[in-house]
Amino acid sequence: MAESRAAARYAKALLDLAVESNVLEEVHADMQLFVRTCEENRSLLSLWQSPIVSHLKKMAVLRELFQSRVHPVSYSVFEIITRKNREEILFEVARTFHRLYNQYKGIQEATVITTFPIDENLRSQFEEMVRKASGKQGVELTEKVDAQLIGGFLLQVGDRQIDESVKGKLQRLGQQLAKTGA
User: What gap in Å lies between CA 53 and CA 40, rounded to an integer?
Assistant: First the structure.
């Protein structure tokens, strides 16, 4: 819990600094690059969280991987966090920064789960549903495929969920039948 609070504080400070320095888009791209790199190479996450790996070794890895690829504002925050021996929160800082960026830009995050990959037409329909549900014009839609839904879709917008899946309908029907004793 303390780590996520610290990550949120660093992410908020980074957002404020990026806005003030007029480099918000660059820093946002850097944070997305950091998250993608860590997700594609899970050993990096282990490295940041390892108490066995020295602080200097972690700094060397950060320098090698990111110093020439990210904006100096982004790298300076990586460096500050590493100097304070808080490398274990780097990934969470980058993820939290993305959420704060979306809030700042008025972008609604949503997830749609279907039984098949959706095409551009369906994607735009789901984005329109999210706009209507959230009142925000910007939409970041994450798409997932889950064959267990049988058919239909599941749309999550913030803390709301629209379940139009066959699996969900069958579960609700089963609950209604159980209540009536049929």
Answer: 20
